[in-house]
Design brief:
Layout (H helix, E strand, L loop, with lengths): L2 E5 L2 E4 L4 E8 L7 E7 L6 E6 L5 E3 L7 E6 L4 E6 L8 E9 L2 E4 L3 E6 L1
Parallel strand pairs: 2-11
Antiparallel strand pairs: 1-3, 3-8, 4-5, 4-9, 5-6, 7-8, 9-10, 9-11
Length: about 120
């Protein structure tokens, strides 16, 4: 069973940057497709970015050009670098991993963006 633990959230001013990390344990990390999702207050959870086991990436339109997902398989960790943050990026950010029919979620880390 894979456990995912996010870190790096916090308060950041509008226009600032933040890097989130997600550390995986308890299973094999390399074959997992990893992703970051977020849920803003009163809204549904939405996909932010994905990275496949081979390193291919995809992004939601709302963050493309401002966000970069990466992974370090030697550290069993996936990252989300967020730049030019906007107030509407405020949300709880969740790490997600999946392989075949297995899905794993972290508990989330809160990102608050405000001027």
């Amino acid at each position: 069973q894979v456990q995912l633990v996010e870190s790096g959230g916090g308060f950041v001013q509008t226009g600032g940057s933040l890097r989130l990390s997600c550390a995986a344990s308890g299973g094999t990390f390399t074959p997992l497709q990893m992703g970051w999702y977020r849920q803003a207050p009163g809204k549904e959870r939405e996909l932010v970015a994905l990275i496949t086991s081979s390193g291919s990436t995809s992004y939601a339109n709302s963050v493309r050009g401002r966000v970069s997902i990466s992974r370090d398989n030697s550290k069993n960790t996936v990252y989300l670098q967020m730049n030019s943050l906007r107030d509407d990026d405020t949300a709880v950010y969740y790490c997600h991993g999946n392989l075949h029919r297995m899905h794993y979620w972290g508990k989330g880390t809160l990102v608050t963006v405000s001027s």
